[in-house]
Write a structure and sequence with these properties.
This protein is an alpha+beta fold. The chain has two domains: about 200 residues, Cathepsin B, Chain A, CATH 3.90.70.80; about 180 residues, Alpha-Beta Complex (Cathepsin B, Chain A), CATH 3.90.70.80. The protein is about 35% helix and about 20% strand. The strands form four sheets. A six-stranded mixed β-sheet has the order 1-6-5-7-8-4. It has a five-stranded mixed β-sheet with strand order 11-15-14-12-13. A two-stranded antiparallel sheet has the order 2-3.
């Protein structure tokens, strides 16, 4: 009995410490709240304002709808860093800027009278800066909303069972209809994890809403290879047909089988494109040249990187041998090839869609290229030749 009592006191103490002193200001879910996710334009504007590179589109739902429970989530990696990784994904379409954003938000808090003005806040921020194993709590969520000037909704499965609202205007901010970030918090507060909410359940069944697109694995065929050989490389000789038969299967997977013929270096993306088209990596340098030249004229790239000097620097850098590529270059390649590309993040175990029509392009059932990014910091790519194992949705 004494041991049980001690456990109860310990649990309550930990719960209090994690919740932090401002948790009473968190506003609970209201039946009139709206699911109104951020847009590509929001991502672009914020990335430019904060000088953080845009990678992929994170927003997939365009309809506004009543704020039901989370239905489809994006898995976010990281035990302690998950909140900042989720913010990184919302902002850039990649989780790899989580540590950068953690540092930036803590510095923002340090300079803020609201988030870092009293002694407890100063001590807490200093502790967070020196200890990477401290979880984000209510203070950090409010500060992130202020830093991004974008309100954040968090659905807590086990603590409240509802949505909690963190206003960009601070602890007394009002809910208004505006693009917001939506996160899913699983587990109890001392062991909780943040994931990114892509879609929510329909509350009003009588109203039609655009459903979440169910991505499909439909790899390009030999006829596509011959077409691209003739179009881009002025040849019709394909060394190897990658997919001889039509393959159509769900892409909601977390296990991929890759082709091992691609060297793990900075040329891996262009090696992969060369192999997809010709069956060899022999045309990698030519494809890099074609994509680099296309970037100079691409309207899509000028939309993603609208600063001419930054764009010119990026083009010059990408033109060099063994320099790896990131999201904007992949968008240029997809536009050049007139073929959408799916990128599987080995770190996140999730897919990102790169439309041939740019970040605003929608997913449709069509033949695509499928690549596995085995290291999203170094951007090392391999060709996906098959997919397995369906992941679970929060609700079907």
């Amino acid at each position: 009995m004494i041991l049980l009592f001690r456990f109860f006191i310990t649990f309550c103490t930990l719960f209090y410490l994690i919740s932090n002193v401002h948790s009473e200001y968190v506003k609970e879910y209201d039946t009139y709240d709206v699911f109104y996710p951020i847009t590509f334009q929001w991502q672009l504007n914020k990335c430019q304002q904060l000088n953080i590179p845009f990678q992929y589109r994170s927003a997939r739902i365009h309809d506004e709808k009543p704020l039901g429970k989370p239905k489809v989530i994006r898995n976010i990696p990281g035990l302690v860093m998950c909140f900042f990784n989720a913010i990184s994904y919302a902002l850039t379409g990649s989780t790899k800027y989580g540590k950068v954003l953690r540092s930036n938000i803590l510095q923002f808090m340090q300079k803020s009278e609201i988030h870092g003005g009293d002694d407890w806040q100063k001590s807490h921020i200093e502790s967070m800066q020196h200890n990477l194993n401290e979880f984000a709590g209510s203070d950090e969520i409010f500060a992130a909303a202020d830093y991004l000037q974008t309100s954040i909704y968090v659905f807590s499965e086990h603590i409240s069972g509802d949505w909690m609202f963190y206003s960009k205007e601070g602890y007394d901010g009002e809910r208004i209809k505006e693009p917001s970030i939506y996160l899913y918090h699983s587990g109890f507060e001392i062991t909780g994890h943040f994931d990114y909410v892509i879609d929510v359940e329909h509350i009003l069944e009588s109203t039609f809403y655009e459903p979440t697109f169910e991505s499909i694995f439909i790899p390009v065929l030999g006829s596509w290879q011959s077409e691209k050989m003739a179009e881009l490389l002025e040849s019709k000789t394909v060394a190897k047909i990658l997919f001889k038969n039509e393959i159509v299967k769900p892409l909601d997977t977390n296990i991929v089988e890759v082709m091992e013929d691609i060297p793990k270096d900075g040329n891996s993306f262009f090696n992969s494109l060369s192999y997809c088209i010709t069956g060899t990596i022999d045309h990698s340098a030519k494809l890099r040249e074609l994509v680099v030249n296309f970037m100079k004229e691409s309207v899509v790239i000028k939309t993603i990187i609208n600063d001419e000097s930054i764009l010119n620097d990026r083009i010059e850098n990408v033109s060099k041998d063994l320099v790896s590529v990131d999201g904007p270059v992949i968008y240029a390649a997809a536009e050049l090839l007139k073929t959408s590309i799916y990128i599987y993040s080995q770190d996140d175990q999730e897919w990102d869609f790169v439309s041939k029509n740019g970040p605003n392009g929608k997913e449709v059932y069509e033949h695509c290229i499928y690549l596995n990014n085995v290291d999203h910091f170094k951007n090392i790519f391999k060709i996906v030749q098959d997919v397995y194992k369906k992941k679970s949705y929060l609700s079907e």
